[in-house]
Protein backbone atom coordinates (compact mmCIF):
# COMPACT_ATOMS: atom_id res chain seq x y z
CA UNK A 1 0.00 0.00 0.00
CA UNK A 2 2.64 2.47 1.07
CA UNK A 3 4.84 1.39 -1.84
CA UNK A 4 1.97 1.99 -4.22
CA UNK A 5 1.32 5.48 -2.95
CA UNK A 6 5.05 6.26 -3.17
CA UNK A 7 4.99 5.09 -6.78
CA UNK A 8 1.96 7.26 -7.40
CA UNK A 9 3.63 10.33 -6.00
CA UNK A 10 6.79 9.65 -8.02
CA UNK A 11 4.68 9.49 -11.15
CA UNK A 12 2.90 12.69 -10.24
CA UNK A 13 6.22 14.42 -9.66
CA UNK A 14 7.37 13.24 -13.06
CA UNK A 15 4.17 14.47 -14.66
CA UNK A 16 4.53 17.77 -12.84
CA UNK A 17 8.09 18.33 -13.98
CA UNK A 18 7.28 17.42 -17.59
CA UNK A 19 4.34 19.79 -17.81
CA UNK A 20 6.40 22.38 -15.99
CA UNK A 21 9.17 22.19 -18.58
CA UNK A 22 6.64 22.27 -21.39
CA UNK A 23 4.95 25.39 -19.99
CA UNK A 24 8.30 27.14 -19.58
CA UNK A 25 9.21 26.39 -23.20
CA UNK A 26 5.86 27.49 -24.56
CA UNK A 27 6.15 30.83 -22.79
CA UNK A 28 9.78 31.34 -23.83
CA UNK A 29 8.93 30.62 -27.48
CA UNK A 30 5.97 32.96 -27.27
CA UNK A 31 8.28 35.57 -25.77
CA UNK A 32 10.86 35.50 -28.55
CA UNK A 33 8.43 34.92 -31.43
CA UNK A 34 7.98 38.67 -32.13
CA UNK A 35 11.76 38.99 -32.41
CA UNK A 36 12.09 35.94 -34.64
CA UNK A 37 9.30 37.31 -36.77
CA UNK A 38 11.07 40.64 -37.10
CA UNK A 39 14.22 38.81 -38.19
CA UNK A 40 12.20 36.93 -40.81
CA UNK A 41 10.54 40.09 -42.14
CA UNK A 42 13.86 41.90 -42.39
CA UNK A 43 15.35 39.15 -44.54
CA UNK A 44 12.49 38.93 -47.06
CA UNK A 45 11.40 41.61 -49.47
CA UNK A 46 7.93 42.74 -50.47
CA UNK A 47 5.06 40.37 -49.84
CA UNK A 48 7.42 37.55 -48.86
CA UNK A 49 8.05 39.45 -45.63
CA UNK A 50 4.53 38.78 -44.41
CA UNK A 51 4.09 35.19 -45.57
CA UNK A 52 5.93 32.25 -44.10
CA UNK A 53 7.13 30.52 -47.20
CA UNK A 54 10.46 28.88 -46.50
CA UNK A 55 11.20 28.61 -50.21
CA UNK A 56 11.39 32.40 -50.56
CA UNK A 57 14.97 33.57 -51.01
CA UNK A 58 16.71 35.40 -48.21
CA UNK A 59 17.91 38.87 -49.16
CA UNK A 60 19.62 41.76 -47.50
CA UNK A 61 17.86 44.37 -49.67
CA UNK A 62 15.82 45.65 -46.73
CA UNK A 63 18.92 46.51 -44.78
CA UNK A 64 20.43 48.30 -47.75
CA UNK A 65 17.22 50.25 -48.30
CA UNK A 66 16.86 51.15 -44.61
CA UNK A 67 20.44 52.32 -44.52
CA UNK A 68 19.83 54.55 -47.57
CA UNK A 69 16.55 55.98 -46.33
CA UNK A 70 17.79 57.14 -42.93
CA UNK A 71 21.23 58.17 -41.64
CA UNK A 72 21.55 55.21 -39.26
CA UNK A 73 25.33 55.48 -39.13
CA UNK A 74 25.03 59.05 -37.93
CA UNK A 75 22.32 58.09 -35.42
CA UNK A 76 24.44 55.27 -34.01
CA UNK A 77 27.47 57.55 -33.71
CA UNK A 78 25.29 60.09 -31.88
CA UNK A 79 23.98 57.47 -29.47
CA UNK A 80 27.46 56.13 -28.87
CA UNK A 81 28.89 59.60 -28.25
CA UNK A 82 26.19 60.84 -25.90
CA UNK A 83 26.11 57.57 -23.94
CA UNK A 84 29.92 57.63 -23.56
CA UNK A 85 30.06 61.28 -22.48
CA UNK A 86 27.30 60.62 -19.99
CA UNK A 87 28.92 57.49 -18.57
CA UNK A 88 32.31 59.14 -18.05
CA UNK A 89 30.72 62.16 -16.36
CA UNK A 90 28.51 59.92 -14.23
CA UNK A 91 31.46 57.84 -13.04
CA UNK A 92 33.45 60.94 -12.05
CA UNK A 93 30.64 62.77 -10.29
CA UNK A 94 29.20 59.70 -8.55
CA UNK A 95 32.60 58.43 -7.39
CA UNK A 96 33.41 61.72 -5.65
CA UNK A 97 29.98 62.05 -4.06
CA UNK A 98 29.79 58.38 -3.06
CA UNK A 99 33.22 58.58 -1.44
CA UNK A 100 32.39 61.70 0.59
CA UNK A 101 29.16 60.09 1.79
CA UNK A 102 30.79 56.77 2.64
CA UNK A 103 34.06 57.77 4.27
CA UNK A 104 34.11 61.41 5.40
CA UNK A 105 32.32 62.43 8.57
CA UNK A 106 30.78 65.90 8.39
CA UNK A 107 27.69 67.62 9.70
CA UNK A 108 24.72 67.39 7.39
CA UNK A 109 25.84 64.14 5.79
CA UNK A 110 22.56 62.34 6.31
CA UNK A 111 20.53 65.29 5.05
CA UNK A 112 22.62 65.44 1.88
CA UNK A 113 22.22 61.70 1.38
CA UNK A 114 18.42 61.91 1.66
CA UNK A 115 18.38 64.92 -0.70
CA UNK A 116 20.32 62.91 -3.26
CA UNK A 117 18.06 59.88 -2.90
CA UNK A 118 15.09 62.13 -3.74
CA UNK A 119 16.16 61.87 -7.36
CA UNK A 120 15.17 58.19 -7.35
CA UNK A 121 11.61 59.48 -7.12
CA UNK A 122 11.88 62.80 -8.98
CA UNK A 123 13.34 61.36 -12.16
CA UNK A 124 14.50 63.55 -15.06
CA UNK A 125 11.82 61.90 -17.26
CA UNK A 126 9.08 63.61 -15.28
CA UNK A 127 10.70 67.05 -15.52
CA UNK A 128 11.09 67.20 -19.32
CA UNK A 129 9.23 70.47 -19.67
CA UNK A 130 11.23 72.42 -17.05
CA UNK A 131 14.55 70.83 -17.99
CA UNK A 132 14.01 71.68 -21.64
CA UNK A 133 13.65 75.37 -20.81
CA UNK A 134 16.79 75.37 -18.69
CA UNK A 135 18.89 73.55 -21.29
CA UNK A 136 17.57 76.02 -23.87
CA UNK A 137 18.81 78.90 -21.71
CA UNK A 138 22.21 77.22 -21.53
CA UNK A 139 22.18 76.98 -25.32
CA UNK A 140 22.73 73.24 -25.18
CA UNK A 141 19.65 72.15 -27.15
CA UNK A 142 20.46 69.64 -29.87
CA UNK A 143 23.86 68.65 -28.43
CA UNK A 144 25.34 65.58 -26.78
CA UNK A 145 25.82 67.60 -23.61
CA UNK A 146 22.14 68.54 -23.59
CA UNK A 147 21.15 64.88 -23.81
CA UNK A 148 23.52 63.95 -20.98
CA UNK A 149 23.23 66.83 -18.48
CA UNK A 150 20.07 65.92 -16.49
CA UNK A 151 21.31 62.37 -15.95
CA UNK A 152 24.91 62.98 -14.85
CA UNK A 153 24.30 63.26 -11.09
CA UNK A 154 22.72 59.83 -10.85
CA UNK A 155 21.33 59.09 -7.38
CA UNK A 156 21.46 55.41 -8.21
CA UNK A 157 25.17 55.60 -9.08
CA UNK A 158 26.01 57.60 -5.96
CA UNK A 159 24.07 55.16 -3.80
CA UNK A 160 25.69 52.11 -5.40
CA UNK A 161 29.22 53.47 -5.00
CA UNK A 162 28.57 54.65 -1.45
CA UNK A 163 27.47 51.13 -0.51
CA UNK A 164 30.52 49.62 -2.19
CA UNK A 165 32.98 52.03 -0.55
CA UNK A 166 31.35 51.52 2.84
CA UNK A 167 31.88 47.77 2.62
CA UNK A 168 35.63 48.08 2.11
CA UNK A 169 37.79 47.34 5.14
CA UNK A 170 38.64 50.42 7.21
CA UNK A 171 42.14 48.96 7.80
CA UNK A 172 43.06 49.60 4.15
CA UNK A 173 42.03 53.20 4.55
CA UNK A 174 44.04 53.57 7.75
CA UNK A 175 47.11 51.90 6.26
CA UNK A 176 47.05 54.29 3.31
CA UNK A 177 46.73 57.21 5.68
CA UNK A 178 49.77 56.09 7.63
CA UNK A 179 51.63 55.89 4.31
CA UNK A 180 50.93 59.61 4.10
CA UNK A 181 48.26 59.59 1.39
CA UNK A 182 45.59 62.27 1.42
CA UNK A 183 41.88 61.46 1.02
CA UNK A 184 41.83 61.99 -2.75
CA UNK A 185 44.90 59.82 -3.26
CA UNK A 186 43.33 57.09 -1.12
CA UNK A 187 40.20 57.24 -3.29
CA UNK A 188 42.17 56.97 -6.52
CA UNK A 189 44.70 54.36 -5.39
CA UNK A 190 42.73 52.20 -2.97
CA UNK A 191 38.98 52.51 -3.44
CA UNK A 192 38.57 52.88 -7.19
CA UNK A 193 40.63 49.78 -8.11
CA UNK A 194 38.78 47.68 -5.54
CA UNK A 195 35.37 48.83 -6.79
CA UNK A 196 35.89 47.55 -10.35
CA UNK A 197 32.98 45.04 -10.24
CA UNK A 198 30.62 47.80 -9.12
CA UNK A 199 31.87 50.10 -11.89
CA UNK A 200 31.30 47.38 -14.47
CA UNK A 201 27.81 46.67 -13.12
CA UNK A 202 26.89 50.33 -13.09
CA UNK A 203 28.34 50.92 -16.56
CA UNK A 204 26.31 48.09 -18.08
CA UNK A 205 23.09 49.23 -16.42
CA UNK A 206 23.68 52.87 -17.40
CA UNK A 207 24.65 52.10 -21.00
CA UNK A 208 21.66 49.83 -21.58
CA UNK A 209 19.31 52.38 -20.04
CA UNK A 210 20.58 55.37 -21.99
CA UNK A 211 21.12 53.53 -25.26
CA UNK A 212 17.38 52.84 -25.14
CA UNK A 213 16.26 56.19 -23.75
CA UNK A 214 13.74 58.00 -25.94
CA UNK A 215 11.56 60.69 -24.40
CA UNK A 216 14.23 63.15 -23.24
CA UNK A 217 16.38 62.82 -26.40
CA UNK A 218 13.21 63.32 -28.46
CA UNK A 219 12.55 66.57 -26.65
CA UNK A 220 16.08 67.94 -26.65
CA UNK A 221 17.30 67.05 -30.17
CA UNK A 222 16.14 68.71 -33.40
CA UNK A 223 18.49 67.57 -36.11
CA UNK A 224 20.66 64.74 -37.30
CA UNK A 225 23.58 66.46 -35.58
CA UNK A 226 22.69 64.92 -32.22
CA UNK A 227 19.61 62.73 -32.74
CA UNK A 228 20.17 59.27 -31.21
CA UNK A 229 19.11 56.04 -32.84
CA UNK A 230 15.90 55.55 -30.80
CA UNK A 231 14.53 58.91 -31.97
CA UNK A 232 15.82 58.27 -35.48
CA UNK A 233 14.03 54.93 -35.53
CA UNK A 234 10.76 56.50 -34.42
CA UNK A 235 10.98 59.04 -37.27
CA UNK A 236 11.98 56.33 -39.71
CA UNK A 237 8.96 54.21 -38.77
CA UNK A 238 6.36 56.99 -38.77
CA UNK A 239 3.57 56.41 -41.30
CA UNK A 240 4.52 59.46 -43.40
CA UNK A 241 7.74 57.83 -44.56
CA UNK A 242 5.80 54.91 -46.02
CA UNK A 243 8.38 52.23 -45.30
CA UNK A 244 7.14 48.66 -45.58
CA UNK A 245 7.40 46.08 -42.82
CA UNK A 246 10.52 44.45 -44.15
CA UNK A 247 12.42 47.73 -44.27
CA UNK A 248 11.09 48.81 -40.88
CA UNK A 249 12.19 45.50 -39.38
CA UNK A 250 15.63 45.91 -40.91
CA UNK A 251 15.88 49.44 -39.48
CA UNK A 252 14.81 48.20 -36.06
CA UNK A 253 17.44 45.48 -36.17
CA UNK A 254 20.13 47.98 -37.17
CA UNK A 255 19.14 50.10 -34.19
CA UNK A 256 19.30 47.31 -31.64
CA UNK A 257 22.21 45.31 -33.08
CA UNK A 258 25.08 47.04 -31.20
CA UNK A 259 23.49 46.69 -27.78
CA UNK A 260 22.42 43.14 -28.55
CA UNK A 261 26.00 42.29 -29.57
CA UNK A 262 27.40 43.75 -26.34
CA UNK A 263 24.82 41.77 -24.41
CA UNK A 264 25.58 38.46 -26.08
CA UNK A 265 29.31 38.94 -25.45
CA UNK A 266 28.90 39.99 -21.81
CA UNK A 267 25.80 37.92 -21.07
CA UNK A 268 26.97 36.63 -17.72
CA UNK A 269 28.23 40.02 -16.51
CA UNK A 270 25.05 41.65 -17.75
CA UNK A 271 22.78 39.41 -15.69
CA UNK A 272 25.13 39.67 -12.74
CA UNK A 273 25.18 43.48 -13.01
CA UNK A 274 21.42 43.78 -12.92
CA UNK A 275 21.35 41.43 -9.95
CA UNK A 276 24.02 43.40 -8.06
CA UNK A 277 22.22 46.61 -8.85
CA UNK A 278 18.97 45.17 -7.57
CA UNK A 279 20.26 43.75 -4.32
CA UNK A 280 22.19 46.80 -3.15
CA UNK B 1 49.93 71.28 -6.36
CA UNK B 2 50.22 67.55 -5.90
CA UNK B 3 50.81 68.03 -2.22
CA UNK B 4 47.90 70.37 -1.94
CA UNK B 5 45.52 67.94 -3.59
CA UNK B 6 46.70 64.72 -2.11
CA UNK B 7 47.81 65.37 1.41
CA UNK B 8 47.68 67.34 4.58
CA UNK B 9 45.32 70.34 4.40
CA UNK B 10 42.22 68.13 4.28
CA UNK B 11 43.20 66.29 7.43
CA UNK B 12 42.28 69.16 9.62
CA UNK B 13 39.17 70.13 7.72
CA UNK B 14 37.66 66.94 6.32
CA UNK B 15 34.31 68.69 5.81
CA UNK B 16 35.85 71.04 3.23
CA UNK B 17 37.00 68.01 1.29
CA UNK B 18 33.58 66.36 1.63
CA UNK B 19 31.66 69.38 0.31
CA UNK B 20 34.09 69.80 -2.58
CA UNK B 21 33.50 66.16 -3.51
CA UNK B 22 29.75 66.67 -3.35
CA UNK B 23 29.78 69.98 -5.20
CA UNK B 24 29.46 68.67 -8.78
CA UNK B 25 26.70 66.23 -7.86
CA UNK B 26 24.73 68.76 -5.82
CA UNK B 27 25.08 71.48 -8.47
CA UNK B 28 23.72 69.17 -11.16
CA UNK B 29 20.94 67.85 -8.93
CA UNK B 30 20.08 71.43 -8.02
CA UNK B 31 19.85 72.46 -11.65
CA UNK B 32 17.99 69.44 -13.00
CA UNK B 33 16.00 68.10 -10.05
CA UNK B 34 15.37 70.59 -7.23
CA UNK B 35 15.05 73.82 -9.25
CA UNK B 36 12.71 72.32 -11.84
CA UNK B 37 10.40 71.16 -9.04
CA UNK B 38 10.43 74.61 -7.43
CA UNK B 39 9.91 76.17 -10.86
CA UNK B 40 6.89 74.02 -11.56
CA UNK B 41 5.36 75.05 -8.24
CA UNK B 42 6.01 78.66 -9.16
CA UNK B 43 4.69 78.50 -12.70
CA UNK B 44 1.60 76.59 -11.56
CA UNK B 45 0.50 79.41 -9.30
CA UNK B 46 1.86 82.47 -11.11
CA UNK B 47 1.69 83.55 -14.69
CA UNK B 48 4.27 85.84 -16.22
CA UNK B 49 2.95 88.92 -17.93
CA UNK B 50 4.67 90.36 -20.95
CA UNK B 51 6.41 93.12 -19.03
CA UNK B 52 8.47 90.72 -16.94
CA UNK B 53 6.39 91.04 -13.79
CA UNK B 54 4.44 88.08 -12.48
CA UNK B 55 0.82 87.70 -11.61
CA UNK B 56 -0.53 85.45 -8.90
CA UNK B 57 -3.06 83.16 -10.52
CA UNK B 58 -3.70 81.02 -7.46
CA UNK B 59 -5.44 77.76 -8.04
CA UNK B 60 -6.65 78.53 -11.58
CA UNK B 61 -4.43 75.84 -13.06
CA UNK B 62 -5.47 73.34 -10.41
CA UNK B 63 -9.16 74.00 -11.10
CA UNK B 64 -8.48 73.72 -14.78
CA UNK B 65 -6.79 70.38 -14.12
CA UNK B 66 -9.80 69.02 -12.23
CA UNK B 67 -12.15 70.10 -15.06
CA UNK B 68 -10.00 68.91 -17.93
CA UNK B 69 -11.61 65.73 -19.31
CA UNK B 70 -8.41 64.72 -21.09
CA UNK B 71 -6.42 64.93 -17.87
CA UNK B 72 -9.05 62.90 -16.02
CA UNK B 73 -8.94 60.37 -18.85
CA UNK B 74 -5.13 60.19 -18.67
CA UNK B 75 -5.32 59.72 -14.91
CA UNK B 76 -7.89 56.92 -14.98
CA UNK B 77 -6.09 55.28 -17.91
CA UNK B 78 -2.85 55.40 -15.97
CA UNK B 79 -4.52 53.88 -12.91
CA UNK B 80 -5.93 50.97 -14.94
CA UNK B 81 -2.63 50.62 -16.75
CA UNK B 82 -0.74 50.30 -13.44
CA UNK B 83 -3.40 48.09 -11.86
CA UNK B 84 -3.17 45.60 -14.69
CA UNK B 85 0.48 45.67 -15.82
CA UNK B 86 2.15 45.75 -12.39
CA UNK B 87 0.71 42.56 -10.82
CA UNK B 88 0.74 40.66 -14.13
CA UNK B 89 4.37 41.36 -14.91
CA UNK B 90 5.46 40.68 -11.32
CA UNK B 91 3.66 37.31 -11.18
CA UNK B 92 5.06 36.38 -14.59
CA UNK B 93 8.53 37.48 -13.48
CA UNK B 94 8.36 35.26 -10.41
CA UNK B 95 7.12 32.30 -12.47
CA UNK B 96 9.94 32.78 -14.98
CA UNK B 97 12.53 33.04 -12.20
CA UNK B 98 11.27 29.85 -10.56
CA UNK B 99 11.52 28.04 -13.90
CA UNK B 100 14.96 29.34 -14.73
CA UNK B 101 16.18 28.53 -11.23
CA UNK B 102 15.31 24.84 -11.69
CA UNK B 103 17.33 22.36 -13.67
CA UNK B 104 15.02 22.45 -16.68
CA UNK B 105 16.13 21.39 -20.14
CA UNK B 106 17.55 24.34 -22.08
CA UNK B 107 17.65 26.57 -19.07
CA UNK B 108 20.01 29.12 -20.60
CA UNK B 109 17.82 29.41 -23.69
CA UNK B 110 14.79 30.01 -21.50
CA UNK B 111 16.60 32.69 -19.54
CA UNK B 112 17.79 34.41 -22.71
CA UNK B 113 14.32 34.22 -24.25
CA UNK B 114 12.64 35.81 -21.26
CA UNK B 115 15.29 38.50 -20.92
CA UNK B 116 15.72 39.59 -24.56
CA UNK B 117 12.66 41.90 -24.80
CA UNK B 118 14.07 43.85 -21.86
CA UNK B 119 17.14 44.79 -23.87
CA UNK B 120 15.20 46.39 -26.72
CA UNK B 121 14.47 50.08 -26.68
CA UNK B 122 10.74 50.56 -26.07
CA UNK B 123 10.54 52.23 -29.50
CA UNK B 124 11.94 49.15 -31.23
CA UNK B 125 9.65 46.87 -29.24
CA UNK B 126 6.71 49.06 -30.24
CA UNK B 127 7.71 48.73 -33.91
CA UNK B 128 7.61 44.97 -33.56
CA UNK B 129 4.21 45.04 -31.91
CA UNK B 130 2.82 47.54 -34.41
CA UNK B 131 3.08 44.78 -36.92
CA UNK B 132 1.63 42.25 -34.53
CA UNK B 133 -1.54 44.35 -34.15
CA UNK B 134 -1.88 45.45 -37.79
CA UNK B 135 -5.55 44.88 -38.78
CA UNK B 136 -5.05 43.30 -42.20
CA UNK B 137 -1.72 41.53 -42.30
CA UNK B 138 -0.79 41.57 -38.59
CA UNK B 139 0.12 38.32 -36.89
CA UNK B 140 -2.60 38.53 -34.25
CA UNK B 141 -5.45 38.87 -36.74
CA UNK B 142 -4.02 36.23 -39.01
CA UNK B 143 -3.94 33.88 -36.05
CA UNK B 144 -7.50 34.85 -35.06
CA UNK B 145 -8.77 34.41 -38.61
CA UNK B 146 -8.30 30.68 -38.06
CA UNK B 147 -11.17 30.97 -35.58
CA UNK B 148 -13.20 33.11 -37.95
CA UNK B 149 -12.46 36.48 -36.32
CA UNK B 150 -11.38 38.97 -38.94
CA UNK B 151 -10.00 42.46 -39.41
CA UNK B 152 -10.19 43.72 -35.87
CA UNK B 153 -8.42 47.07 -35.43
CA UNK B 154 -6.78 46.65 -32.01
CA UNK B 155 -4.96 49.97 -31.86
CA UNK B 156 -7.70 51.96 -33.58
CA UNK B 157 -10.53 50.92 -31.29
CA UNK B 158 -10.95 52.94 -28.07
CA UNK B 159 -12.00 49.75 -26.26
CA UNK B 160 -8.82 47.85 -26.98
CA UNK B 161 -6.03 50.39 -27.58
CA UNK B 162 -5.02 50.71 -23.92
CA UNK B 163 -5.13 46.94 -23.48
CA UNK B 164 -2.89 46.56 -26.53
CA UNK B 165 -0.34 48.87 -24.91
CA UNK B 166 -0.54 46.89 -21.66
CA UNK B 167 0.35 43.62 -23.43
CA UNK B 168 3.49 45.18 -24.86
CA UNK B 169 4.49 46.55 -21.44
CA UNK B 170 4.10 43.17 -19.77
CA UNK B 171 6.10 41.47 -22.53
CA UNK B 172 8.84 44.05 -22.19
CA UNK B 173 9.07 44.15 -18.38
CA UNK B 174 8.51 40.63 -17.03
CA UNK B 175 11.99 39.44 -18.03
CA UNK B 176 13.62 42.44 -16.38
CA UNK B 177 11.98 41.74 -13.04
CA UNK B 178 12.74 38.03 -13.43
CA UNK B 179 16.43 38.88 -12.98
CA UNK B 180 15.83 40.32 -9.51
CA UNK B 181 13.77 37.33 -8.41
CA UNK B 182 16.43 35.02 -9.80
CA UNK B 183 19.12 36.78 -7.79
CA UNK B 184 17.01 36.49 -4.66
CA UNK B 185 16.20 32.81 -5.25
CA UNK B 186 19.87 31.99 -5.69
CA UNK B 187 20.78 33.63 -2.43
CA UNK B 188 18.13 31.84 -0.36
CA UNK B 189 19.73 29.93 2.54
CA UNK B 190 19.83 26.30 1.35
CA UNK B 191 19.66 24.80 4.84
CA UNK B 192 16.35 26.55 5.41
CA UNK B 193 14.92 25.24 2.13
CA UNK B 194 16.19 21.74 2.98
CA UNK B 195 14.59 21.88 6.42
CA UNK B 196 11.31 22.96 4.85
CA UNK B 197 11.49 20.04 2.43
CA UNK B 198 11.71 17.62 5.36
CA UNK B 199 8.86 19.33 7.19
CA UNK B 200 6.36 19.46 4.39
CA UNK B 201 6.07 17.42 1.21
CA UNK B 202 3.74 19.92 -0.46
CA UNK B 203 5.53 22.16 -2.95
CA UNK B 204 2.77 24.73 -2.88
CA UNK B 205 2.79 24.86 0.93
CA UNK B 206 6.57 25.29 1.04
CA UNK B 207 6.42 27.97 -1.60
CA UNK B 208 3.71 29.90 0.22
CA UNK B 209 5.06 29.56 3.75
CA UNK B 210 8.83 29.58 3.26
CA UNK B 211 9.91 30.91 -0.14
CA UNK B 212 7.44 33.76 -0.53
CA UNK B 213 8.17 35.37 2.86
CA UNK B 214 11.90 35.17 2.14
CA UNK B 215 11.30 36.84 -1.21
CA UNK B 216 9.23 39.65 0.32
CA UNK B 217 11.97 42.34 0.10
CA UNK B 218 12.49 41.51 -3.59
CA UNK B 219 8.76 41.57 -4.22
CA UNK B 220 8.53 45.02 -2.69
CA UNK B 221 11.49 46.28 -4.73
CA UNK B 222 10.05 44.89 -7.95
CA UNK B 223 6.53 46.14 -7.23
CA UNK B 224 7.72 49.68 -6.57
CA UNK B 225 9.87 49.71 -9.69
CA UNK B 226 7.03 48.37 -11.81
CA UNK B 227 4.72 50.99 -10.36
CA UNK B 228 7.17 53.81 -11.10
CA UNK B 229 7.66 52.49 -14.64
CA UNK B 230 3.90 52.50 -15.17
CA UNK B 231 4.03 56.28 -14.73
CA UNK B 232 7.32 57.21 -16.36
CA UNK B 233 7.55 54.98 -19.44
CA UNK B 234 5.39 56.23 -22.32
CA UNK B 235 7.74 55.73 -25.31
CA UNK B 236 5.49 53.12 -26.92
CA UNK B 237 2.57 55.58 -27.12
CA UNK B 238 4.53 57.64 -29.64
CA UNK B 239 4.72 54.65 -32.00
CA UNK B 240 1.52 52.70 -31.39
CA UNK B 241 -1.40 55.00 -30.57
CA UNK B 242 -0.22 58.58 -29.90
CA UNK B 243 -2.61 58.42 -26.97
CA UNK B 244 -5.57 57.82 -29.25
CA UNK B 245 -8.02 57.18 -30.61
CA UNK B 246 -9.63 60.21 -29.01
CA UNK B 247 -7.35 59.99 -25.93
CA UNK B 248 -8.56 56.46 -25.18
CA UNK B 249 -5.01 55.30 -24.46
CA UNK B 250 -3.29 58.45 -23.25
CA UNK B 251 -1.19 58.35 -20.06
CA UNK B 252 -0.16 61.14 -17.67
CA UNK B 253 3.40 61.68 -18.85
CA UNK B 254 2.34 61.56 -22.49
CA UNK B 255 -0.26 64.23 -21.83
CA UNK B 256 2.38 66.33 -20.07
CA UNK B 257 4.55 66.00 -23.17
CA UNK B 258 1.68 67.04 -25.44
CA UNK B 259 0.76 69.98 -23.22
CA UNK B 260 4.32 71.27 -23.04
CA UNK B 261 5.55 70.60 -26.58
CA UNK B 262 2.46 70.43 -28.81
CA UNK B 263 0.12 72.92 -27.13
CA UNK B 264 3.06 74.91 -25.70
CA UNK B 265 1.19 75.55 -22.47
CA UNK B 266 4.10 75.41 -20.06
CA UNK B 267 2.29 76.51 -16.85
CA UNK B 268 -0.38 73.89 -17.33
CA UNK B 269 2.28 71.26 -18.02
CA UNK B 270 3.94 72.32 -14.76
CA UNK B 271 0.72 71.77 -12.82
CA UNK B 272 0.39 68.31 -14.32
CA UNK B 273 4.02 67.59 -13.50
CA UNK B 274 3.35 68.50 -9.87
CA UNK B 275 0.41 66.13 -9.82
CA UNK B 276 2.55 63.31 -11.21
CA UNK B 277 5.21 64.07 -8.59
CA UNK B 278 2.57 63.80 -5.88
CA UNK B 279 1.58 60.38 -7.22
CA UNK B 280 5.21 59.26 -7.14
CA UNK B 281 5.64 60.65 -3.62
CA UNK B 282 2.67 58.55 -2.60
CA UNK B 283 4.32 55.48 -4.11
CA UNK B 284 7.51 56.21 -2.17
CA UNK B 285 5.60 56.71 1.07
CA UNK B 286 3.92 53.37 0.45
CA UNK B 287 7.29 51.74 -0.07
CA UNK B 288 8.62 53.26 3.12
CA UNK B 289 5.63 52.15 5.19
CA UNK B 290 5.65 48.64 3.77
CA UNK B 291 9.36 48.08 4.13
CA UNK B 292 9.02 48.97 7.81
CA UNK B 293 6.06 46.78 8.67
CA UNK B 294 5.32 44.06 6.23
CA UNK B 295 8.67 43.00 4.90
CA UNK B 296 10.88 40.95 7.16
CA UNK B 297 14.52 41.34 6.39
CA UNK B 298 16.78 38.64 7.66
TrEMBL record, chain A:
According to the entry, every stretch annotated as the ABC transmembrane type-1 domain falls at 76-266
- Segments passing through the bilayer: 21-40, 75-99, 111-128, 134-161, 181-205, 245-266
| InterPro entries in the record | MetI-like, MetI-like_sf
Q: What is its main location?
A: membrane
Entry membrane topology? Multi-pass membrane protein
Where does it reside? Cell membrane
User: Which keywords, in A-to-Z order, does the entry hold?
Assistant: Cell membrane, Membrane, Transmembrane, Transmembrane helix, Transport
Keyword Hydrolase belongs to the record: no
| Family the entry assigns | Belongs to the binding-protein-dependent transport system permease family.
Quote the protein name from its UniProt record. Carbohydrate ABC transporter permease
Q: Organism source for this protein? A: Motilimonas cestriensis
Q: What is the lineage of its organism?
A: Bacteria, Pseudomonadati, Pseudomonadota, Gammaproteobacteria, Alteromonadales
Automatic annotation (TrEMBL), chain B:
Q: Where is the ABC transmembrane type-1 domain?
A: 75-287
The protein's matches in SUPFAM superfamilies, at most eight in alphabetical order, are given as: MetI-like
Which keywords does the record carry? Cell membrane, Membrane, Transmembrane, Transmembrane helix, Transport
The UniProt transmembrane annotation reads 79-100, 112-132, 162-184, 210-231, 269-290
Entry keyword annotation includes Transport: yes
Tell me the PANTHER family matching this sequence: ABC TRANSPORTER PERMEASE PROTEIN (PTHR30193), INNER MEMBRANE ABC TRANSPORTER PERMEASE PROTEIN YCJO (PTHR30193:SF37)
Where is this gene product found? Cell membrane
Q: Which InterPro entries match?
A: ABC_transporter_permease (IPR051393), MetI-like (IPR000515), MetI-like_sf (IPR035906)
Q: What is its main location?
A: membrane
Protein name (record)? Sugar ABC transporter permease
Its domain of life reads Bacteria
The text of the family note is:
Belongs to the binding-protein-dependent transport system permease family.
List, alphabetically, the CDD domains matched: TM_PBP2 (cd06261)
Q: How does it sit in the membrane?
A: Multi-pass membrane protein
